[in-house]
Amino acid sequence: MGILKFSKTHEWVLVEGNFATIGITDYAQKSLGDIVFVELPEIGRKLKQNEQFGVVESTKAASELYSPLSGEVIEVNKEIINSPQLINEDPFNKGWMIKIKIINIKELDNLLSEEEYKEFIKREQ
Question: What is the pTM of this model?
Answer without folding.
Answer: 0.96
